[in-house]
Amino acid sequence: MSMAVQPHSSNYGAVVAAGGPNNYAVTQYDESAQRPRTSNLLAPIMLLSGHEGEIYSSKFHPEGNILASAGHERMIYFWMVFGECENFHLIKGGHNGSILDLQFNTDGSNIFTASTDKTVGMFDTETGERIKRMKGHNAIVNACSSTKRGDQLVASASDDCTVKIWDTRYRGAIKTLQLNYQVTSVCFDDTGGNVILGGIDNDVKVYDIRTGKMTFQLCGHADTITGISVNHDGSYALSNSMDCTMRVWDIRPYAPQERCIKVFTGHQHNFEKNLLKCSWSPDDSKVTGGSADRNVVVWDVPNQHVLYKLPGHNGSVNDVQFHPNQPILLSCSSDKQIYLGELSK
């Protein structure tokens, strides 16, 4: 694989780049522009280059020491978060189509992938071995999610108008939720007993996976739901939509009738119609979402203000995530690059 690494200049005074499987890295830092450091990153901004196609998803390992990324190339890249951010491993041959989403399980021992080849993959994080190939969808699988506790279940959302629930101990899906529209996003709640899903009908829905029945429907978005994330205590769901808003919903069983409690604006979707993700900070005080205007946007939850609008990418920002225990933001883009950016505390 040919690797091209270009140093990146930033307004923080750092020039840092890290490259792919050749473990090539370039690091330069302007001490005169240094500001107080808040993380263990080698420099305030790290640019990870090596992908040769659009990157649709990137996630931190639960321990925060490595990250994984995937996209158009059908491969999973593993990178070190600290030091020179070496690309130390690739998983090839796991899918026959682009990987649209990936998720670590709770302890990080496995990674799950959703692909345009109509399957969900399960891989051993350490060895890269494909443990399971979950087949049953009849169209592109847009998103996947795994439970945080209890039995290891996986949910997958597809253009075939279904969400399938998989128990990794068994071969086929243990439950299929049949809907009337393409499903573009899915996420388990904190208990693993419900899935929150969204699609092209603009509404967020909560389903009880035991009964297969819809618990409630959350209306307010005016376009396709592209990403859903549940906060850390399981009380609230965050949704990203092509209507250029993100919303916070109260998903507790006995919440008030008006469940939409926050609306965030300031990011963009465009004609590409990429499935832009969203996520919460570890303390749930901030949220972030993908944006088609090439910026990484972070909002303050209580006041709904934009805290950061971070430039740097040259394409749609498709996935964003906060580090589990340091003020670091991960973003990946259609420009084939990944950024790790240090935030002020």
From TrEMBL:
It is found in: Nucleus. SMART domains: WD40 (SM00320). GO terms for molecular function: RNA binding. Keywords: mRNA processing, mRNA splicing, Nucleus, Repeat, Ribonucleoprotein, WD repeat. It holds the Pfam family WD40. WD repeats lie at residues 48-79, 92-133, 134-176, 218-252, 279-309, 310-345. SUPFAM superfamilies: WD40 repeat-like (SSF50978). One of its GO terms (biological process) is mRNA processing. One of its GO terms (cellular component) is U5 snRNP. CDD domains: WD40 (cd00200). The keyword Nucleus applies. Signal peptide: none annotated. Required for pre-mRNA splicing as component of the activated spliceosome. Component of the U5 small nuclear ribonucleoprotein (snRNP) complex and the U4/U6-U5 tri-snRNP complex, building blocks of the spliceosome. As a component of the minor spliceosome, involved in the splicing of U12-type introns in pre-mRNAs. Component of the pre-catalytic and catalytic spliceosome complexes. Component of the postcatalytic spliceosome P complex. Part of the U5 snRNP complex. Interacts with PRPF8. Component of the U4/U6-U5 tri-snRNP complex composed of the U4, U6 and U5 snRNAs and at least PRPF3, PRPF4, PRPF6, PRPF8, PRPF31, SNRNP200, TXNL4A, WDR57, SNRNP40, DDX23, CD2BP2, PPIH, SNU13, EFTUD2, SART1 and USP39. Component of the minor spliceosome, which splices U12-type introns. This is U5 small nuclear ribonucleoprotein 40 kDa protein. It comes from Phallusia mammillata. The lineage of its organism: Eukaryota, Metazoa, Chordata, Tunicata, Ascidiacea. The gene is Snrnp40-001.
